[in-house]
Amino acid sequence: MSEKLQPQKKTGVFTVERRRHPRFSVEFPLDYSFVEGKETYGGIVANASEGGLLVYLPQRIEIGTV
């Protein structure tokens, strides 16, 4: 009796990059101010691509207000 060998399924995490532009890890300081304000605030740029930036800010902001 011979048994047929079956391929074993690979386990683990496999991710496919689905972004249009590659992202690059960076760590740059960022100064910003609100459209209607004069004070400036600080944040950190965490990664960048041709399509945009990921920034960390000390407060939640609405789109179009900075």
Furnish the topology, listing elements before pairings.
Layout: E1 24-32, E2 41-49, E3 52-56
Antiparallel strand pairs: 1-2, 2-3
Write up this protein.
The protein is an all-beta fold and 66 residues long. It has one domain. The chain is 0% helix and 35% strand. It is built from no helices and three strands. The protein has strands spanning 24-32, 41-49, 52-56. A three-stranded antiparallel sheet has the order 1-2-3, with no helix packed on it. A hairpin with a 2-residue loop joins strand 2 (41-49) and strand 3 (52-56). The chain is rod-shaped, with a radius of gyration of 22 Å. It starts with 23 loop residues before the first strand and ends in a 10-residue tail after the last strand.
What is the number of beta strands? 3
How do the helices and strands follow one another from N- to C-terminus? EEE
Helix-residue proportion:
under 10%
Mean pLDDT: 85
- Distance between the terminal alpha carbons, to the nearest Å? 74 Å
Q: Structural class of the helix and strand makeup?
A: mainly beta
**Low-pLDDT residue spans:** none
Q: Could you give the order of strands across the largest sheet?
A: 1-2-3
Rg: 22 Å
Based on CA inertia axes, which overall geometry fits? rod-shaped
Structural domain tally: 1
SS field, number of helical segments: 0
> Main beta sheet: strand number and arrangement?
3 strands, antiparallel
The fraction of residues assigned to DSSP E strands is: 25-35%
